[in-house]
Amino acid sequence: MKINAFTKTYEGRRVLDFPGMELERGKIYAVIGANGSGKSTFAKILTGVQKADKGRVHTDAASVGYMPQKNFAYRMSTKANILLAGKNEEKARRLMAELQLGHLENKRADRLSGGETARMALARLMMKGFELVILDEPTAAMDMETTMLSERLILDYVKETDCALVLVTHSLQQARRIADHALYFHKGQLLEEGSADKVLYTPEKAETRQFLEFYGA
Amino acid sequence: MKTSIMKAIALILSADAELLDILGVTAEMSLQSSVIALLIGVPIGIWLGASRFYGRSALLVANRTLMGMPPVVCGLIFYMLFSGVGPFRHLKLLFTVKIMIMAQVVLITPIVVGSMEGYVDRVAPAVRETAKGLGLGRVKTFFLLVNECVYQIISTYLLAFARSIAEVGAVSMVGGAIAWKTNVMTTAIMQYTNRGNFTLGIALGIILLTISLIVNIVISLLQRRLSR
Lengths: 217, 228
Ligand SMILES: Nc1ncnc2c1ncn2[C@@H]1O[C@H](COP(=O)(O)OP(=O)(O)O)[C@@H](O)[C@H]1O
Ligand SMILES: [Mg+2]
Description:
The complex is a heterodimer. Chain A has helices at 39-47, 78-82, 89-98, 114-126, 144-161, 172-178, 196-201, 206-214; strands at 2-3, 6-10, 13-18, 21-22, 28-33, 64-67, 132-136, 164-168, 181-186, 189-195. By secondary structure, chain A is α/β, with parallel strands linked by helices. The two termini of chain A are 32 Å apart. By secondary structure, chain B is mostly helical. Helix content of chain B is 79%, strand content 0%. Bound molecules: adenosine-5'-diphosphate (ADP) and magnesium ion.
């Protein structure tokens, strides 16, 4: 699967300059970097919710699933939200159970807490299979326990659907736990990219090393 | 003062024939005009709020201008178009309930458009982004957007109805406040007060305030349900 090169400029300021890369199915790609380094912009452009400076389609994936950094719950029950992407009741029930949403099934989803909304959004996305899936900080609002459950689920999902999964995360630990590859964004540049073992433990660039040190590596 | 209010209440309780006729004309005018304004204004408002195109902000400015149009100016325009010298005089609509409804629709529709546009402009990006991320089609996305708007449509309708029932400037000009024909609550209050007959005016005032109170209670209950 290919991601083409693109750039993104906001109000005359270049916030992202992506050189393009190949993605392999069945693998998890962690995107790490400081706040404002362009991670969400990268996710939005891959998904197509935002345009790059030139052109629109930047990947040749047949279908792209996306969980935004700010999740939105439609004004209907948690279960109805989850069933939007696929009508499989049994699967919905299983996902709700696995993400500890069972007791919230009939609750209005727009009244869920931040962490609950994130879990609902993850379950909702996983009702469907995509060639490419992009999760923008899916566990940022979750507690440790549900974060672990979500990571387990993400791993299973990738195995089951054989998709390429881009995981934007501010958690270095999370990237180390589940990613196969890692991309380090620095001030809108893809500074370093490669296997997770390499980028997340023994990076080449000084900036990446500094970033890892900040996170208590 | 006190005896006037007592008399007014007695008049309401006695189901006075002229009072009932005024209430009937008022209901006909405000219900019809608010429903028509809703049917025209809601789709336009959703469209303006959900889409981005060249000229959209010009349309929004135009709508805001119409929202601020003084009712008497609207009445004047309709009067000129339909009176004995106007281009539409042969339709013989001047001083009928129909033309009152038309003038009201012109006054209220921009309010409906503005109310819907503002709301949709706020929710549409999240609704769309989420639907796209789930790979949902355009039709489903549109229904999800409309589903988010349900309470807003109801409270917009109540707002439109309240405006319609309280309007006086335009309807008195084009309707003429003719007893047993085009006299509505507001025009009747003016008329009877001018004649020194306060009882009917007070009775109508009490009814208007009560309706307004009910409408506003419903709106605030809805808003409480809406707030997250
Ligand atoms: N809609 C926007 N308008 C202007 N600037 C934006 C917009 N969205 C993001 N930016 C800017 O682009 C840069 C990258 O943002 P983002 O991709 O959200 O960073 P990250 O997700 O890595 O924290 C930031 O400096 C941010 O302020
Ligand atoms: Mg971000």
